Amino acid sequence: MDDQGLDTLLALDGTQYGIQGDFWVKFEVRRVEATPNIPHGIKYSLTLHHKSGTRLLGFDNAHAPKIKRRKFAGRREEWDHRHYRSVVSDYFFDSAAHLIEDFWKHVDEILREEGI
Predict the structure, then answer these.
(1) Name one Pfam family in it (predicted).
(2) 3-state SS assignment for residue 103
């Protein structure tokens, strides 16, 4: 995998810190053998939580996503997906750098919604 953001993503593994006292983020990232479900060989979970423990946002590929699909919609093999509050949607992983960028973009949007 030729991805300039990969080292940055892998370095985030185990990082957890607070944002504005009411929120916190957590990163879990590790290399795994590439499979049809994880073709890029990176298992990850990037999450934003409220201090109550509620997950507000998550990007991960730890499991097959449970997404309501139209009757004839194709099923993806890849497990990459996004949790936004209670809604799960597909996430198309194209690079580690883009994953990091997308995560922080959505964190910023949620914090603005929360008045932060």
Answers:
(1) TumE
(2) helix
Task: Per-residue pLDDT tens, the chain, 116 aa: give them.
Answer: 557 799 999 999 999 999 988 999 999 999 999 999 999 999 999 999 999 999 999 999 988 777 665 555 555 678 899 999 989 999 999 999 999 999 999 999 999 998 87
Here the contacts of 98-105 (C-beta below 8 Å, separation 24 or greater) are 98/5, 99/5, 99/9, 99/44, 99/46, 99/59, 100/5, 100/8, 100/9, 100/12, 100/46, 102/59, 103/46, 103/57, 103/59
pTM equals 0.88
